[in-house]
Design a protein that fits this description.
The protein is about 75% helix and about 0% strand. With about 625 residues, it is mainly alpha-helical. Helix 15 runs antiparallel to helix 16 and helix 16 runs antiparallel to helix 17.
Length: about 625
């Protein structure tokens, strides 16, 4: 107690000294006040200084308010201005002290950790999710501070060198962060579907001058296996690992920050922020898989992956109702979400984990892995319920409903959607309510079809739910839920024998799904459009939509690509191979505008693959 009192008195003297020297004209700038505060206030004692400053401020304010003598009042007023300058500069100094304290704490934790735990400790103290994450300057200070404790070739020396190289590498890459987007006009600016010399990885590979990150970027540019690449790195050092870690982390954060600043850019914005989080998380999960024989590096890669996912799960745009995005395509990422599964098993149940499991569940449904999808959603449902994350709980009830429909378990699907509807209305989750209405209507249509119920009232009630969901999604401006509503309405109208209404909703659903960037919904809409057009004997249109749907679903490894393929093979048999080929050729420019020349050329191969599988 006495120590605190004496420190408070010392700070009162410091404040009085700054005020007096200001009044005498010996302090000419606020920078001098700032430097005096940095020098005079000990790190960790800010609360005591603030109490002393508050006492002086209140005392001088009272003097200004009550003093009758004009000269004394004028001096008190000047003193009050000086005190307020101190107050402003103290806030600035406090931020600096926090930064210094955070760096000092990081140094202490790394240097005192057991040798085998130092890499994990470094990743923990530099976690961007921490209360006071270290900025670039602090990382440089950390490197210099560790150097003071390091012996030659020690792990501390390696970490220090890795930090310095990683920061320098990022500084070289910074101005080239998004330059690849402007090298030529392209439809896609994501990570997939870009020729290897024109994408981000190739651009960054040309800028870094360290062997490991350069080789990794070239591997990614060529869509080659990250696992095979990592398994070939037999002589990787701790400094190499730290350098690569920092460069990848800064790239990921830099891209997300840039994309987040593009809310009105239809090619960028949150779609590419989501894609960036997922892409880098998958890369780290693949590195964890590749270094399975080296526990230290494997665990470190998993640690970074989970940090990325934790940050992602806290974002407002985290896709509780989406999973496969347009910019997340490309052969090297095909099925890559599977890699996130194993590291997540090691993590305790948290709100962030529930949200990531929700994303995985949706993605598994898109791939046609329904049992696995249900497993993920049920895990997420339990965790979200325990964590009190109601939007996530409602989302998983909705997803379970949708997946049960895929398995033709319609009674369960109706039950899940009804529970989602009740809970969403109780909690005011309007987005959850829109999805619940859609899923309820969709489930009831499919059940009525299975039971061969012909009463129009049954379908009218179900379609009414779908239309309510559509109106609500439009009110909310939720593009993803609107796309699902339109798709579901289209399927429902097809079931009840109204193909014209089906086509109208499905075409709008496809355009809306393109806006949301969800390849799975795009493919489903196109596949159902092909069926509706076939029913109307509009074969040319059926070929166009069927080929697009087949290709897009195949690109995300969804087993549902076989459904439009089957229809196309039947149609080819009915009208003849020559007429089918002529129709495909006539639609060439329209198809290329959506999936490119390579996509168009791949269509005949896909049809042959389907035929071979059926033989």
């Amino acid at each position: 107690m006495s120590e605190s009192v004496s420190l408070r008195d010392r700070y009162l003297v410091l404040i009085d000294e700054i005020v007096e020297t200001t009044l005498k004209g010996k302090i000419s700038s606020v920078e001098q006040v700032y430097q005096m505060l940095l020098k005079g206030v000990t790190v960790g004692t800010g609360e005591i200084f603030e109490l002393a400053l508050s006492d002086r401020l209140n005392g001088i304010q009272q003097q200004v308010d009550t003093e009758k003598d004009e000269l004394k009042k004028a001096k008190a007023t000047r003193s009050l201005r000086a005190i307020k300058t101190i107050q402003t500069q103290w806030q600035r100094a406090q931020e600096q002290n926090k930064a210094t304290e955070a760096t000092a704490t990081a140094v202490k934790e790394i240097t005192t950790a057991p040798t085998r735990e130092r890499l994990a400790t470094f990743l923990r103290v530099t976690d961007p999710n921490s209360k006071h994450p270290l900025n670039l300057q602090q990382m440089q200070q950390l490197s210099k501070a560790l150097q003071q404790f390091a012996q030659a070739d020690s792990d501390l020396q390696q970490i220090s060198e890795g930090i310095a190289r990683g920061v320098a590498g990022w500084q070289r890459l910074q101005e080239h962060l998004v330059s690849w987007m402007y090298e030529q006009s392209r439809e896609s600016i994501g990570f997939g579907g870009i020729p290897e010399e024109q994408g981000p990885w190739a651009t960054w590979a040309k800028q870094v001058n360290s062997e490991l990150p350069q080789a990794l970027f070239r591997t990614l540019a060529r869509s080659q296996s990250v696992i095979e690449f990592a398994q070939q790195q037999r002589s990787i050092t701790l400094s190499d690992w730290v350098e690569m870690t920092l460069i990848l982390q800064y790239l990921q954060r830099g891209l997300v920050h840039w994309f987040d600043q593009q809310p009105y850019n239809v090619k960028a914005g949150s779609k590419l922020s989501i894609s960036t989080f997922l892409t880098f998380a998958v890369i780290w999960s693949q590195l964890a898989n590749a270094f399975d024989g080296d526990t230290s590096y494997s665990n470190a890669a998993s640690q970074v992956m989970l940090q990325i996912l934790r940050t992602f799960a806290q974002r407002q745009y985290f896709p509780l109702y989406g999973g496969i995005f347009a910019s997340f395509s490309g052969s090297y990422l095909r099925d890559a979400l599977n890699y996130l599964d194993e590291p997540l098993r090691r993590v305790e149940g948290t709100q962030e984990k529930a949200r990531i499991l929700t994303l995985l569940g949706y993605s598994q449904r898109a791939l046609g892995l329904y049992d696995r999808s249900i497993d993920f959603h049920q895990q997420a449902l339990e965790i979200a319920r325990n964590a009190g994350d109601r939007p996530c709980e409602i989302a998983n009830l909705n997803h379970l409903s949708r997946t049960c429909v895929q398995q033709q378990r319609y009674a369960e699907a109706i039950d899940y959607s009804q529970r989602a509807l009740i809970l969403s209305r109780q909690t005011g989750d309007r987005t959850g309510e829109a999805y619940a209405l859609v899923n309820l209507g969709y489930s009831e249509v499919m059940q009525a079809q299975q039971l061969e119920q012909l009463e129009s009232e049954t379908y009218e009630m179900a379609i009414n739910y779908l239309q309510q969901g559509l109106r609500l999604s439009e009110q909310l401006g939720d593009v993803q839920s609107k796309a699902l509503c339109l798709s579901s309405l289209g399927i429902a109208y097809l079931v009840i024998g109204e193909p014209q209404n089906a086509i109208k909703n499905l075409e709008e659903g496809f355009r809306t799904a393109q806006t949301s960037g969800d390849l799975y919904l795009q493919g489903l809409n196109l596949a159902t459009l092909a069926e509706a057009n076939y029913n109307l004997a509009n074969f040319d249109r059926a070929i166009y939509t069927g080929c697009l749907g087949m290709y897009l679903l195949n690109q995300i490894a969804s087993q549902e690509w076989q459904k439009p393929a089957r229809l196309l093979v039947i149609l080819q048999g009915q009208i003849g191979a020559e007429a089918f080929g002529n129709s495909l050729q006539q639609n060439r420019s329209r198809i290329i505008s959506v999936i490119g020349v390579d996509g168009y050329d791949y269509i005949p191969e896909l049809l042959e693959e389907y035929k071979r599988a059926g033989d």
